[in-house]
Write the structure tokens for this entry.
Amino acid sequence: MSLHSESIRMRTKSMQVTSDTIYALSSGGLPSGVAVIRMSGAKALEVTESLAGSLPAARQAVLKTIRTRNGLVLDRGLVLVFPGPNSFTGEDCAEIHVHGGKAVVAALLAELATFEQCRLAEHGEFSRRALENGKMDLVEVEGLADLISAETEMQRRLAMEHAAGGLSQLYDGWADRLTRARALIEAELDFADEEDVPGSVSDLVWSDMAKLRLELADHLAGADFGEIIRDGLKVVIAGAPNAGKSSLMNVLARREVAIVAEIAGTTRDVLHVDLNIDGYAVKLYDTAGLRDTDEVVEREGIRRALRTAADADIVLSLAEIGERAQLEFPGFTGRVVRIGTKSDIYPDEADGDYELRISSATGAGLAELHALLLEDLRGRSSSLSLALPSRTRHRTLLSDSLEALTAAVASISAGLDIRAEYLRRSANSLGRITGRVDVEDLLDVIFSEFCIGK
């Protein structure tokens, strides 16, 4: 089979799959008080009418008896229909709300499977159809996925900003400015003798492109904070054996995560808990005590501890009061907070250069540590806006766009055609963030993050 024939076959298969009516349980795990079965596609309303006997008015919930095509009563529940294109996917959609028993849902899904051209939805397929039908762009889709998985208030706010289109609006505005600049350049190249075309694009284009470059650079600088909100601030507890690392881990987590013992080298592997500090996600890591040792397993634990510290946002360097807290860690360039521990045992000890003195036994200094972490989080953002890039994909494409735009602005001696090409590359990278430019290779990965009913 030729490549052309194979391409046609794959496109035909894709069209057939897209033409199917899909359905899924969209309300989460069972049993539950209510289960929502969602449908989307050309036969959604026809199937719903067959099950419910008649269709309610659009976007109005009506109590109906749900029956099989043989007349067997499955349940009584609410039925809603959303005719396209005014629906989540842009297609005809319907929802049936029934009791959330496993047997009820299984029977209803089994009945839906008997209709021709109806099948169970794949992961993220509802959202993918919304993207393909122009109801959402790629950033909004990613924001929706993040909103579903958000565990803290700041994660929710960041995801809502993306899902509601705040970030997309910013990128679309920048893309429009790039498009207008390219149009003016093309006009000067092709119609320089026409009176309606400006004689020089310098004032009209390059001053605005220089401003855009600064805006883009400032926005990209917020990528670190956006990723921290989405993925969590990575805080590593490090220090010598018996410095109180595991005790601090347990008291911050408010449960016994790590084994605490007076025997040096008790912690051998990296332990991790997720914390919520005033709406911010914090990933806290307890590590093996750092010392010279010939014991093979302990040496591996120390190697892992140093590797984890190198990837941290903050290292809490613990030392028993009277000892010196470690200041440097291989490969780590971030903030090291020197903490003296066991202040209940050494209340009057003055030795040691510590930012904080704490006691995991009495709780002394823990409020100050909490405030320090919160201050660090808030200090990482220079803006009150949460229209921030939050994924590595965003950062990479923004960097590509900024690099091309910088080249366009800086290449003063180059021809207008070359500088216009740089602008095209910059706009192309921005378009790939929102999906305005072909991103087919990314879609399978992105939508695999979704649950079946979304």
The longest strand covers residues 73-82. The chain has three domains: 21-121, 140-222+388-447, 229-379. The two ends are 36 Å apart (CA to CA). The domain at 140-222+388-447 is CATH 1.20.120.430 (Four Helix Bundle (Hemerythrin (Met), subunit A)).
